[in-house]
């Protein structure tokens, strides 16, 4: 009897669930959106009820009218999610406040306090990456300081997928991939860090569930969860993973030398490697949960797709109006317009630091900027500059990964950004390498399905399954005439940021004091 597997990705802007058969064919899918609540410009929170309601609707939609031979043969469920996120729950698993998500920057003061208590290099040696206010040690310090009652009453602090897993199974869980990206985990001892916990006065072993491998069965769908979701009780639920690792599985990153971008609201850049990065490089280096891939270099860029959305919402409202009037997809409109502008955007450079920047700058004070405008600058120049600037950010990350020892012999792109032909041609030309595009069905939930299938024995060798199921749909080649221009422009992208960086923190302080 054919088996079926469910994969769900709980992202920053929406959740998407897909039911696959064991051969990798899509049976049904559904997605749900939810809001991010921005407060004081730098706080970013989500309501965990929105997560759960979205997941319920996804599962109810997928499970409705399923033939019995499919519903009764769903062999497993795996959920990946945005990270790092922090959600305090009480002893009954009830959230005590909104979740603080990865893009939240409230803990900058706590970040500085933390680095006054521990040497930066010692910190990096423990967690395997650059410290930043977006990670959980700083946010735990903030909660402890400003919301002491909530902190005191918190039984556990959960990631987004961990919370949904609890709602499905009644079991508190954590996966190793999200534990590493929390920066509360010691990558050397493979345990929650006692050293960092002691510094901030928190027992990580007590407040976090024990981390397990992503393909660990942590529990089974309960009778109550079955009533709410339409699933049958008893379906195995996996520990799950980050949206990044699920994406790596979905696009077949399984060997050193392979690299990829998951292009969504933000971008995640990955490169497989045989050894850990030196601690003085601005990339996250972590033990891989994928067989045959010892280490993964991981670098998150904060505002790639978000920059496009920002442009449309602020400077490109006429494009949205045109789309509504004509019925044409707005992204088709802006792709066509950007393609008509010469490479180099008539001298305009865009810096996509609308939320500060994570990799490779790790600078919460970095600012979004257009540089090089003149009286001749057009709206379309600015549009193309956004496509180019977000791609220069990708190149900046890849150059740092190479400096850390990674080889980048092939580059794949998946996610929403892989649907823009103009953007892909710009990326191929700025990176000066072929870009491999995959079948659109191989979205993040497919990576979750591979993990679930491995856990229940359907895919004993996950790498072999990747090679069998994941096929290249298209290859985008660089444009020679663009390559030469971008090679001359890119050094200025790096040097101009460095020249302005010394003033950005002071400027932010002044603006905050007068506005």
UniProtKB/TrEMBL annotation:
<dbReference type="InterPro" id="IPR018483">
    <property type="entry name" value="Carb_kinase_FGGY_CS"/>
</dbReference>
<dbReference type="Pfam" id="PF00370">
    <property type="entry name" value="FGGY_N"/>
</dbReference>
<comment type="similarity">
    <text>Belongs to the heat shock protein 70 family.</text>
</comment>
<dbReference type="InterPro" id="IPR018485">
    <property type="entry name" value="FGGY_C"/>
</dbReference>
<dbReference type="InterPro" id="IPR018181">
    <property type="entry name" value="Heat_shock_70_CS"/>
</dbReference>
<keyword id="KW-0808">Transferase</keyword>
<keyword id="KW-0418">Kinase</keyword>
<dbReference type="GO" id="GO:0016773">
    <property type="term" value="F:phosphotransferase activity, alcohol group as acceptor"/>
</dbReference>
<dbReference type="InterPro" id="IPR050406">
    <property type="entry name" value="FGGY_Carb_Kinase"/>
</dbReference>
<feature type="domain" description="Carbohydrate kinase FGGY N-terminal">
    <location>
        <begin position="4"/>
        <end position="247"/>
    </location>
</feature>
<dbReference type="GO" id="GO:0005975">
    <property type="term" value="P:carbohydrate metabolic process"/>
</dbReference>
<keyword id="KW-0346">Stress response</keyword>
<dbReference type="Pfam" id="PF02782">
    <property type="entry name" value="FGGY_C"/>
</dbReference>
<dbReference type="GO" id="GO:0016301">
    <property type="term" value="F:kinase activity"/>
</dbReference>
<dbReference type="InterPro" id="IPR000577">
    <property type="entry name" value="Carb_kinase_FGGY"/>
</dbReference>
<dbReference type="InterPro" id="IPR018484">
    <property type="entry name" value="FGGY_N"/>
</dbReference>
<dbReference type="InterPro" id="IPR043129">
    <property type="entry name" value="ATPase_NBD"/>
</dbReference>
<protein>
    <recommendedName>
        <fullName>Chaperone protein DnaK</fullName>
    </recommendedName>
</protein>
<comment type="similarity">
    <text>Belongs to the FGGY kinase family.</text>
</comment>
<feature type="domain" description="Carbohydrate kinase FGGY C-terminal">
    <location>
        <begin position="262"/>
        <end position="453"/>
    </location>
</feature>
């Amino acid at each position: 009897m054919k088996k079926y597997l469910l994969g769900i990705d709980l992202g920053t802007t929406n959740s998407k669930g897909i039911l696959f058969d064991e051969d990798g064919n899509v049976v049904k899918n559904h997605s749900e959106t939810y809001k991010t609540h921005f407060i004081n410009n730098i706080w970013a929170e989500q309501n965990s009820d929105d997560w759960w309601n979205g997941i319920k609707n996804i599962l109810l939609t997928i499970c409705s009218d399923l033939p019995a031979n499919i519903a009764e043969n769903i062999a497993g469920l795996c959920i990946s999610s945005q990270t790092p996120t922090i959600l305090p729950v009480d002893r009954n698993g009830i959230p005590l406040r909104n979740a603080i998500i990865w893009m939240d920057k409230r803990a900058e003061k706590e970040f500085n306090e933390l680095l006054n208590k521990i040497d930066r290099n010692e910190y990096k040696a423990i967690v395997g990456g650059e410290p930043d206010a977006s990670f959980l040690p700083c946010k735990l310090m903030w909660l402890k300081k400003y919301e002491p009652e909530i902190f005191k009453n918190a039984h556990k602090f959960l990631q987004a997928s961990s919370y949904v897993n609890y709602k499905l199974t009644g079991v508190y869980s954590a996966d190793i991939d999200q534990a590493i990206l929390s920066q509360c985990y010691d990558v050397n001892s493979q345990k929650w860090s006692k050293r960092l916990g002691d510094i901030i006065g928190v027992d990580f072993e007590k407040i976090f569930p024990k981390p397990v491998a992503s393909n660990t069965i942590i529990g089974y769908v309960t009778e109550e969860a079955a009533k709410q979701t339409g699933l049958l009780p008893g379906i195995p639920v996996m520990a799950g993973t980050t949206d990044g690792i699920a994406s790596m599985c979905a696009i077949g990153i399984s060997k050193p030398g392979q690299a990829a971008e998951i292009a969504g609201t933000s971008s995640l850049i990955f490169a497989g490697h045989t050894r850990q990065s030196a601690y003085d490089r601005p990339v996250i280096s972590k033990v891989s949960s994928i067989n045959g891939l010892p280490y993964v270099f991981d670098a998150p860029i904060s505002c790639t797709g978000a920059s496009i959305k920002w442009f449309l919402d602020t400077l490109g409202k006429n494009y949205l109006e045109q789309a509504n009037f004509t019925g044409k997809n707005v992204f088709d409109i802006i792709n066509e317009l950007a393609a008509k502008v010469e490479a180099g955007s008539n001298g305009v450079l865009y810096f996509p630091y609308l939320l500060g920047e994570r990799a490779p700058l790790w600078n919460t004070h970095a600012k979004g900027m257009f540089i090089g405008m003149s009286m001749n600058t057009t709206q379309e120049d600015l549009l193309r500059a956004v496509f180019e600037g977000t791609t220069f950010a990708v190149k900046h990350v890849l150059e740092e990964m190479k400096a850390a020892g990674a080889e980048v012999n092939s580059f794949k792109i998946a996610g929403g950004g892989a649907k823009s032909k103009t953007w892909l041609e710009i990326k191929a030309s700025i990176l000066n390498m072929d870009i491999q595009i995959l079948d659109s069905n191989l979205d993040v939930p497919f990576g979750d399905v591979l993990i679930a299938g491995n856990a229940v024995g359907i895919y004993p060798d996950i790498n072999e399954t990747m090679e069998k199921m994941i096929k290249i749909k298209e290859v985008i080649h660089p444009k020679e005439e663009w390559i030469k221009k971008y090679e001359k422009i890119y050094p200025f992208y790096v040097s101009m940021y460095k020249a302005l960086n010394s003033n950005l923190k002071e400027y932010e302080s002044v603006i905050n004091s007068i506005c």
